[in-house]
Every structure is written in C-alpha cells, then in structure tokens.
Here is the input.
Amino acid sequence: MNLRTRIWLAAGLALLLATAARAQESAPASARPTLLERARLIDSLDVQGPTHLVLDGKVVAEGGRPDAAYGIGFASAAASLTFDLGADTPLAAVYVQADGRHDYSLQVSDDGVAFREVWKVPKSEAMAGRSGMHARYTPLFGAHGRYVRFGEPTGLGGTSVSEIRLFETIPAMWPPVFALVTAPEPSTTGDEPRSAFRITRGVSNEIKMMLAFAGAALLLWGRRLRQGGVPDRHRRLRDGLLLALGILGFTGYFNWGGFHFPKRVHVHEFFHYYVGAKYFPELGYTGLYEAANVAEAEQGFRRRVELRKIRNLRENERVSAAYVLEDPEHWKKGFVRPFSPARWDEFKHDIAYFRDRMDIGAWEHALQDHGYNPSPMWNVAGTLLSNLGPASNGLIDGFLAWIDPVLLLIAFGLITWAFGWRVACVAALFFGTNEPALYFWTGGGFLRQDWFLFAMAGICLLRRGMPAWAGASLAVSTLLRVFPAGFFAAIGLRMIWVLLRERRLDRTGARIVLGAAAAVAILIPASSMVAGGFQAWPEFVKNTRKHADTPLTNNMGLHTIVAFRWETRQKFSYDPTQEDPFHKFREARKQAFRGPIALPLFIALVLGYVALLFVIARREMDWWVLAAFGFGVIPVFLEMTCYYFSFLTAAALLGPKRASIPIGLLILAGVTQFIEFQTYYYDMRYTLESVAVIAFVGWATWTYARRTVDADGADADRPPAVAATA
Here is the structure.
C-alpha cells in the first residue's frame, strides 16, 4: 500500500470517528448511561413507587400533573434515595424533574455516613405554589463523592419525582433531552371485568341522609294518624319500617361493613389511647410525641426526627422535632416515674408496631395531633387493658377493637329495656346517621364509647326508678369525659326550685346526688392509684383547660357560632408556610370570641337558654326527662369536637313525652349530612352544623316548655307511662 493510499485511509478513519463522536454527543441524554444508572441503590427511605422510574429517561410535560404511573413519591421530610457510585467520582451536573412546590436536597458523602449538600434544588417560581412537574438542572463545580443522596423535600402537599440524572461530564446538549410521556389513560375497551358495588364514604353519607329523612317522615306519618284518632292504622307496616330503619341506622354507623373503607381499626386513635394509657406514669399528658421520637431515633430513623414536625403538647403548637435529640435521656425521666430499661424496650416495640402499621404519611400526621387527653378515670380501664401485652394484631384487632361495638350494643339494649324498642330504633337511627359523630372520627378506636354507655344508662335507670344508680352512672360518664356533667344541669335546677319553694330537699333528687357523690368518692382515689398519684387530676384539669383554649376546625357548639368570622375562616387564615399552619386560625378565633360583641352575646344566649330550661325544671316531675335535656345544655354551654355530638341521641328518648322532638332530631341528622355535601373546609362545615344543632336545641326546648296537648290528646306534661313514637 503506497503512501497516498495510507493517507486517504487515515483521513477517512479520522472522519468516521469524529462523526461517531459528534453523533454520540448529540444523542438524547436518555440514550447514554449516567452515573446513577451505573450506581447501586443502597437505601430507599419513605419512598412510594418503583425507584427505577426515576432513571428510565422519561419525563412529562412541564406543569404536568404528578402521577405515580411515571415517578415516585416522597412520603416524609426525610424521604430520600441513596446511591453508591463504587468509588470517589467527580460530579459535573445534575438534572431533576419533580413537583415544583418543593425544595429538594442533593447530598454527597465519602463514607456513606456524613453527607454534605452540594445543591439545594429550588422550588419553581413559575409554578407559584401550584402542583405540577418542573425540571431543574445545574452544573456542579468541583463536587465529588462516592455516595449520593437525593430527596428530603420541604414544601406543601405531596411530592412526586419523575427523573433524576447525575453526569460525570456536562453533556454537549444542555439541558439534556428526554423522552416525553403522559400518564396512562383509563381503558375504555370495556373488556375489564365489572367490579362489584363498593360503598364509599360519600355514598355511605348519602344513604344515611336518606335514611334519616325517611325516619322523620315515618314518625310524622304516625303522628298524623294519632292526631286523626286512628293511631293503630298501618301499625304493623309502620313498626316493620321503623325496625328496619333502626337496624339500618345502627349498622350505618359502621358504614355497613365499610368501616374506614376498608380498615376496621382506627390505628391513629389506637396509637394515642393504647400507648398513652399504657405509659401514662412515664409520659403523662405531654410526653408522648417526644418519647416516640427518641425511640424512633434509637431504632435507626434519626434523620426523620431531625427533619419532621411534631406538636409540642405543652403549648399545643407544631414545631420542629430536632430538639428532642439534644437531650434524649430527658424524655425518659417520666411524669411520675422514669422508664426502666425493660419498659423502654417495650415502649420502643409498641412505637415500632404502630409506626409500621401506618404508612409513613399517617405516622407523621399522628405525631402532629393533640396527644393523649382522657381523664385519670378513663385511664383506669385503659391502663389495665393496654398492659395485657405488647401491641399486636391479636390484642388490638382480636380483642380491644371489639370493646366499643359491645358497649354500643349494651347502651341500645338499655334504651330498649327502659323505653321500648320503638324509642331504641329512633335513637339508633339518629346515632348511625348524624354527620358530626361519624365512624370516621373515633370508630374502631380504643374504649371511645364508654362515656356514651354510662350517660344513656343513667337516663334509663332514672326511667326505671333507680335514682341512686342513675346518679352514679351519670357521674362515671362525667368523670370519663367531663361534658356529660350537662346531664345533671336540669336536675340541679329542679332541686333548687323545690328547695326555694318548699324549703325541702327533694328525696329523689337527693338520691341522685348521693349516688353521684358515692361514685366520685370511690373512683377518684382508685383512678389516682392507677395513674400514679392524685397529681394526675390537677394535671388533667390543666390539660383540659389548654385544649379548651385551643380552637379546632372541627369544634362545635354555640361558642363556635359566635366566634366565627367570615374574613378569618380556615380558607383565609390557614397558612402552610408557617411552622404551625393553624396558628393564625386559632388566634383569630380566640380574639373574635373575646371581642365586644361575641362574648356578651354568648352570655345572653346562655342565660336565655337557662331561663327556658328552668321553666321545664319547675313543672317536670319525671327526673329522666330532666337528665335527657343534657342534650341541649352541652352544646349551649360547651365547645367540643364534633365526634362527641352523639350525646344528642338523648333527645330521642323524649319521644314518649313529645312526639315531635324525635322527628326534629332525625331531620337534624339529615341536615348535617346535607351540610357535609355542600362544604369543603371543616370550620365552615362544623359552624353550619352547629347552627343546625343550636336551632334544634332551641326549638326542642321551647316546644317542651310550652303547655300544649301532644299528638295523642293527653296532657303533654302528664303523658302515659309508656308511649310509642311511631
């Protein structure tokens, strides 16, 4: 081969190599392996979805909706992916497409232990806080390391990441180009098997609304027949319909087997009540969240604790949790006694059980709730039951979670015993169809219906002529939850009236008081012993005052109505950029109630209701009626979370005296469901429901206070001993 031929061959080969190099440089970035593709994923903390999706070279249109079909989710502030590059490697550039509402952190490490941040992936200014995917990319000047960690988001709402690329050299095409994909569309071929009907919360509430209104119509029909002098017409039909509605209503509380769609056990509730009761001597009312975070850090999740938010239960404010790691031993010293090594090990086991049973998002939320708050009286049974063994599915699902359904069955059994099955059906229908006290809140929890049982039992025992036992039962309910003290209010007014007018102490009233006093005298010392000392009661009072001074979006009552202001409602005062997003809301509510209009108005309305109730107390001779009027006293005097409003069930027991009151009660249940459909923000929903409740309370009390003739033609103040409500 001559020299000229060799020169032409060499030139051709050089041209070919140059062309190939240029083609490789201009190829899409997704076509060339990058550092993370060659690396080994060694840790995936709080990540949802297949991790390979962030390395598949596929992105979505800018501003596209986050979707698990083409990326992963980060479920906590500590969520991250950690890669091992195999050796110390220079890092030239990085590309990320992720939800634009969040910051992210890119960190490197030489040893896999100590990480340093090389890029704070910023939020997207273009997204202006809206959810949507957004690409961010930058050169990395002088960065290097063997281990790479990406994640630890800060921002609003859920997070989604579709692509992460790390380059050893900056590609010629910058920013890099990736394949564009869209989320898969639902199939419209009709070839999929049809799924069976599945009840949802929305469907369940629609059914409940219809059942409540149907029950009211049925009772109204019966009342019209009695007014027409034909009370027995269609009796069998009406009784059959009432029985069916009662059963449907009661089972409706459990969403007809839907429970929490589909979970039966409320793990969030169980965490607070089981752990709070079991370790009350060590944790008291304020140490639950700090101790739980110390335990979690010791179990290898320190980074979660460093980055998460928890609620400081002494101030009821949401704060960064990192402070608990400054002196971890401090949180083991205890409220009454310190944790022993064995108790601490069991506590860590129980924390791990509940943490692992929830998804990480639910666990993070649980640590921002309002802690363990029951009285030392509740703590007696709670402590004994929770100490039966370590937290386990067998103990919780197999035993403890069945206690509340049994208590409810006993409560409605007592109503049947004292008032008859018709009244019990009306009571069950309201209980299961009202919106404030949905299964959603405390259903499937740990001993959350004990107060309801003792409150209903007290009224039933009065109806059956056992005033001392009734007083004791109402006292137990009060010691369990405080607000059932409202069931004593009209009884007290009656006793004062008799004392002032006749200069004597009513014997029945005195027996009620003596029964209540005996229960208090026995149970307060007993509960103090279980709680570790009498100081548990002053601490309970302090804790209760703290909560009473902390407005919540799901509070209800007259107080809620007069403190509501349109311009400071949740939609406007909730500020997710703050450490505690609800701080402005709570402060605005407190200031509004203490203003020159709200507080005097509240006092005037309370006094007006007391005057109306006093009219009833002067004339009414049946003590069970006076006790039942606690259904009106409680929402007028007190502000409480919505799930306790099942106490309104007591109004159903007045059916034998006023047939119209159960009708109004069932209409109220339907109206609360209607309000739920029309509202989104909790504060609007439960303020409107409070208006409905207070309107019903005012109407029912006024109706009873008037001297009228009831539907059967008998003197409404002296009805027969037993009367039907349908």
Observations:
- The two ends are 115 Å apart (CA to CA).
